Amino acid sequence: MTEISPLVNPEVSAAPPADFRGTASSVASLARIDSVHTLRGIAALSVVWFHLTNGNAAFLQNGGLKASGSQGWLGVEVFFVLSGFIIPFALYRSGYALDEFPRFAAKRIVRLDPPYFAAALLALALGFASSFMPGFGGEPPKLSWVQLFAHIGYLNSLLGRPWLNPAFWSLAIEFQYYLSLGLLFPVLSSSKRYVRLSVMILLSLTALLVRSPNLVFSYEFLFLIGIVTFQYKCRIIGIREWTSLALLCTVGEWTVGGGAIALIGAVTALLILTPIRVFPATALLGDISYSLYLTHTPIGGRIINLGARLPQSTIVSTFILMLGLIGSLSFAYLFFRLVEEPSRRLASSIQYRYVGRS
């Protein structure tokens, strides 16, 4: 759900240090972080399983199946840490400068919005289609133009309007993060410690003082955990500074979000830095993770809703869950190939100027 030129002032530079870019091996190490790719897939799968097992209160009784997905919502928090890491990481290796903010925004929009709008249309179409199904117990969706057009700017939560797909709420938080990072990246990657720490202290204060689930500030410590991990990975800071800052951010998240979220944030940061072997299945899951996140509710959720009408037993419930999971994964793969992959290729064609440093 994750790309970003130094300022004119060379002392607040986004370019990697000369010694970092000086060897082929160090450049190659930036080509791809397998742990991030794997974690993306696992995070998406955990959210899917949470919604399949806990999304319909009439489907499963309390027990092992329901409990197996009860903490899957934490996958969203994993995504926030991953975005905190991978976006500045990509900007750093791209030689991003502040004057290229419009290009950065364009890359994000081209990369993410076409699949997002396609998924919104999917949810809308299936919502109306469901109202014609035999035995449908509700009413056709009641929509307003404000609700629909608010999706264009990820504004539904801020305007108090329902999302066409409830999973979209986190995309609004990510969008706010992208905009703020595009503006703050040059100082967050500065070689001067006091510059970096000043803005991080400011962000931490907003996280402590602004408590709104509709604003990025409420999740700022998770993004900061990813940001300090990026700083360490790119040798902007050393291991002791990373340890101290990551620990402080974890404590901050514990204060505002609770122990479970803080723990998953810290574990995600450690796993980012841990070499993880990538298998074909986990590589594919990482590839389709965004498509899976976007489409699993209207696809897998409807399979669960239909299955909930059947007489329930452990065998039947397990079969319906597997059908929902397979259906979600299969549709996500098709959606990735037909919608997301073309958007990804188009976004990659938008290049930043590479600004080196002697």
What features would you describe in this structure?
The chain has 358 residues and is mainly α. It has one domain (24-130, 153-348). The chain is built from 15 helices and no strands. It has helices at residues 24-28, 34-54, 64-68, 74-94, 101-130, 145-150, 156-159, 169-188, 193-209, 220-233, 239-257, 259-272, 280-287, 289-307, 314-348. Helix 11 packs antiparallel against helix 12. The two termini are 34 Å apart.
The average pLDDT value, as a whole number, equals 88
> So what's the oligomer here?
single chain
Cα distance spanning the termini: 34 Å
Name the helix and strand elements from N-terminus to C-terminus, one letter apiece: HHHHHHHHHHHHHHH
The helicity comes to 55-70%
Tell me the domain tally.
Answer: 1
Largest sheet: none
Cα-based radius of gyration, to the nearest Å: 21 Å
- In the predicted model, the low-confidence regions spanning at least 5 consecutive residues are 2-31
Secondary structure tally, helices: 15
Structural class: mainly alpha
Instruction: Please count the beta strands (DSSP E, at least 2 residues each).
Output: 0
How much of the sequence lies in strands comes to under 5%
Characterize the overall form: globular
